[in-house]
Amino acid sequence: TVGAGNPLDCDQPLASALPASAFSGSSELSSSHGPGFARLNRRDGAGGWTPRVSNRSQWLQIDLGDRVVVTAVATQGGYGSSSWVTSYLLMFSDSGRNWKLYRREESIAGFPGNTNADSVVRHRLRPPMEARHLRFLPSAWNPDGRIGMRVEVYGCRFRSDVMDFDGKSSLLYRFVQSTRNPMKDIISLKFKTRQSDGLLLHRRGRNGDFFTLELVKGRLLLITNSGTASPSPSGPGSVALGSLLDDQHWHSVLLEHARQHMTLSVDRHSRQFQARGQLSHADLDPEISFGGILAPGKSVTFQRKHFDGCLENINFNGEDIIDLAKKHRPQILIRGNASFSCSQPQSVLVTFPSAGSRLVLPGTPAQDGVSISFQFRTWNQAGLLLSCRHPRGSTGFVLRLRDGALRLGLSPSPGHVRSDIMAGAGLNDGQWHSVSLTARRNQLSVVVDQVGVSHPRVATVAESGLLQWTGEHTCQSDESGFISPGLVAWSSWAGGGRCTLLYVPACRLAGPRLPKTRDPTEPSSPPRCLPNRCEHGGRCSQTWTAFHCNCSGTGYTGATCRQRESLYEQSCEAYKHRGESLGRYYVDPDGSGPLQPFPVFCNMTDVPWTVMQHNSSALTRVKGADQNNPHWAVFQYEASLEQLRAIIAGARHCQQMLEFYCRRSRLRDPQDGTPLSWWVGSTHGTRTYWAGSMPEAQTCACGLAGNCVDSQHLCNCDADQDEWTSLLSGILWARSGKGSFWNSASFHTETSYLHFPTLHAELSADVSFFFKTRASSGVFLENLGITDFISLELRSPREVAFSFDVGNGPCEVTVRAPGPLNDDRWHLVRAERNIKEAWLQVDLLPPGTHTAPEDGHMRLQLNSQLFVGGTATRQRGFLGCIRSLQLNGKALDLEERAEVTPGVQPGCPGHCSTYGHLCHNGGRCQERPRGFSCDCELSAFSGPFCTQEVSAHFGAGSSVTYNFHEFYPLSTNSSPHAASFHGDMTLARERITFSFQTLQTPSLLLYVDSFYNKYLSVILAKNGSLQIRYKLGLHEDPDVFNFNFKNMADGHLHHVKINREEGVVFVEVDQKALSQVSLSSGMEFSAVKSLVLGKILEPGDHVDEDTARAGARGFSGCLSALQFERTAPLKAALHPGRSGRASVLGPVASSECGARPGIGRVREHKHARAERPGAAEQGKPVENGNRGGSALIGGVVAVAIFILLCMAAVAVHLYQQRSLCATTEVEGPRKTECASGPAC
């Protein structure tokens, strides 16, 4: 016997000793194939049960005589036959009418059966179940035979103490203190009911403290209250578990209360939480009410609906409460009519599991009219509930559910107009709703949940008829739910006879529309939104057969809101490799993990920095702080602590900057050296070192360098000077790591792989990585279980496959690319598997999907290591590179494992084949160990992608001269601007592009001279038109081409392209139609000497008059993006250190005047950087500074005594960088070199 709290060995055979009458079935092939021959290992009769027809509507049922604990079942086929069942469902019931499907998982109901007639297949039930009736429903059988079964059931007797509460009764249990567990109180019970609301138990304490466990709309709510007079079931002190608990099946409840900690378990689901206020188990009164609030001699401040149903095996700290009640012990007080047996309800539940189900009931003739009443519950918005018609006439009515409301449609007799009646709203909420329909003479009334609607005119319905409950298709949706008829009344109204009541068990299921999926009498659908399988705050809703996730506003997509939306990348590095410019972006470093996207500033240099902003990035003045009145500063980043940790973990280098200015503000007490200022980071430890120093150094950066303003002190601030002469600035904190974006491994042999811990992917998992290869196939990753597995592989040069098995059989999702994927370029693979679907995407190709069965296995059970780049059998391994591998939003360190794995090397060369297209305007892609960079030296553009136009503003009289011919031997030149031309070179063609903006006419835009008095000039004439002059002959006059555009000295930016091919010149202005002209003066531009912008300093007498006039006046305005063949003269002039060729005379300054809209601009807004104070001499960082103790901090808050609360200290900027070390420039007069090490 097994009872509450008394588990024993429970594995005895229960069916073998039962009489034949205990077995029943849907049908039998012959008398020798009857259900009574279905005992395991028996050979009598035909050797087992076989139904007349083998289909999925057959069943074998066992009455175990009493309620027992069932721990296992076993099956065989028919003895010596070809009849056996390969899979089946198992249902159980107390009464034999109200059935429930046994589920091994949340959605799994099926059991694998037999593969032959005589072997025994046994399944242990985890968890066990308590039932009197069992029903086996074959769902598949031997295709070459029939259904055939012999069965056995294992378990033991079940001890059950029950009480039946009628909705008005209650029980009070009073106990002595010795019954109380000093550590915690434990209450356990089982209940079953048909009512959606009712109080199970209530316990109160001092000052109005109490907790209540009650059913509310079919869910179990634990309401805790600390002194509130009227608590709300939906308030902050309530916890809900379960759904559809009013299904007339037993549900187990366990409540543990230890001080303020409470754990509530309902069936197999648990929740832990903290009780409100001081609601400790030790402070509650030694009495508990069950079924209702029973408090003799005490006032009850609020009322709850009493419980109507059965409670079983109520146990408090090991005490059997119902047993005490049966023995009439003094601790028990019962009020009302409570009995010690569980009554069965008179109504019968009928399930319509699909839209093809229907129930047909014959009507009985009467004269008064018709009266029908029933209850129903569903989640579907629309469907046909019932119809009534006369077989020989056209009159009748149809009751439908549409948009959650009932619509009664009347079919009128001839001469009458069809009319509809609407009643109720929101009826598809999964709760029970009562419907009563009454027709009397010329009055029709519909009552839904006790709210009625009447209609005055009703068409007459002839005698006798047919009443149908259906799940048929409607014009909008399908109806599948379950209807719970109580009494169904049907009559016609041709006379004054009495109504005849037809009891539901007389009903039958219609033949051709009977669903073939399973027995249609299962009375409930599982609550598919409890627990909520929608991730990242997705909102769950359900129909009778499925659940759906609304992901709007979450930043995620997919069937369960797990996929990150494409606009959110994981880092600034990823945004850079999309070709994005600097600006403000949202990043999501953990992908599908729990962290929400958050804003950062991406500084897109060659090695991108991620700048984290906080609430105090400007200089702040603090004065008058001392030990008795310290100044505290708390800094709030735009990201949470977890988000900061995630972005730091994925960075190759992180650092924090601090600026601290002081005047008469010491850092340490001059008497004993006690720190007067400190900061606290995420580890909550006090730190007294400052930027540029090291922990425990007891000195500042100037003390380490030996250059403090006062050699007697190790920090400038400790000199206590009266001027702003001290500066603490630099890196306060830095961390180097391997990063994740370029973390990669190269696989050189098919037998090599990297191994990692088992992938945690029971209900959902996602994988993302980049790969590049020249091989035609190979396995990217694999993880195995006993039968389950998950695998990603390159199936062929054009196909990637995602395969897995969660117990429903192998599934596969493939994506086929239009071109080869083994092209030695990086390709992105993203895959996800959840309980709704599997999803695979390669690059930006349309994803492949596979929908999971709604009632299939959900849990992926793996136990092997995760193999990356190969398989457990060392076959079909991957040859190539894998990088940036992330599982469930967490990056795997491929390089660390590759360093110790034969056949695998850390890192992977060759990135320009994939990302070289990001280098624009003649920029050249250069390989780096971790990524690439764009070399813009020969381009007229700069920036990480050579997209930022190099522009200069020319003042009056200014001039820039670029010499093409070197005046020293070429062998001594180490400049990347080594001569593209030589004095004796001859150009048959040249390409020139530039932009300009001016108001001056005439103007010289460009002048190119040669050693042989040949030249090219581009000028604006006096009327503002563009003129191009070529003189390529020695004696001829120049060719003059006047482009009669509008006045181009209009202050707007204009773009010019000139392309000469020998004697033909092509000109394009402002991207308009191309103009073509021909030269007559020659076709060779030989011995090119120099290029002049602005004023011509030495024009020579070979220059024509208009060019000389324009050259004498020069140019005033903006010149931008000047490219002459493979040289960038304007860039050379603005960066003279790079080349010795350019000379500048007059006011020429770098400018952004040529920047195109949207290029290099900041998205949203730029990162706010603190301005630096004036010079130390007598400069004042802020105006009106007094001479008292004061300090300034740039980027955070300046204090004499302060605390920084942030992620590992706060500072002006938190930088993230993922490439090799490079100089980081900070605005202002100071430049800080990056920390030493291989990466910054």
From TrEMBL:
Membrane topology (UniProt): Single-pass type I membrane protein
Residue stretches making up the Fibrinogen C-terminal domain: 563-614
One Gene Ontology cellular component annotation held by this UniProt entry: membrane
The entry's keywords: Disulfide bond, EGF-like domain, Membrane, Repeat, Signal, Transmembrane, Transmembrane helix
Compartments where found: Membrane
Region (Disordered), start-end ranges: 1164-1186
SUPFAM superfamilies: Concanavalin A-like lectins/glucanases, EGF/Laminin, Fibrinogen C-terminal domain-like, Galactose-binding domain-like
Pfam families, alphabetized: EGF, F5_F8_type_C, Laminin_G_2
Disulfide bonding pattern of the chain: 881-908
Transmembrane segments: 1191-1215
Laminin G domain boundaries: 162-342, 339-529, 743-908, 959-1153
Domain EGF-like stretches: 525-562, 909-947
Keyword Transport appears in the UniProt entry: no
Matching InterPro entries: ConA-like_dom_sf, EGF, FA58C, Fibrinogen-like_C, Fibrinogen_a/b/g_C_dom, Galactose-bd-like_sf, Laminin_G, Neurexin-related_CASP
Residue ranges of domain F5/8 type C in the record: 10-156
Family note: Belongs to the neurexin family.
Name of this protein: Contactin-associated protein-like 4
